[in-house]
Amino acid sequence: MTDANVVTVTQTVPVAARVNQGINAFRNFLRQPAVVRSMPMIVVAAVIAVGLLAITVLREPAYVVLFPQLEESDKATVLQTLTDKGIKAKLDGTTGQMTGPRADFYRAKMLWPRPVCRKRQVPVMTFSVKCLSAPAARLKPQS
What we know:
- By secondary structure, this protein is mainly α.
- The chain is 43% helix and 10% strand.
């Protein structure tokens, strides 16, 4: 025989028949004695897994204080700026401090570059240097 005379016949199995075969194979697997005995433990593990997944997905992100000494007059401006930039900042109801998600902490600090804490007057002593090679005795404090 030559290759020209060989005819290949392919059978196509309907999709519904393949799905039915898969379902029957799964049912046969579930009827095995070892699977039947371990089914309660499988159900408990599945319930715990679904519960942990739900807790992980549905919980609020951890909030941290963004600006601890924020003036009352600046709170509305800071809140509006952060909200416009997509950071879910909020005011803590008990302490009144500006809080935001931990993941956006540094982004929020960069968006509000102006110092928002009260400026404290700290006396600083300044020195004048007469010459770079001058000994320390030549340094005199300015008043």
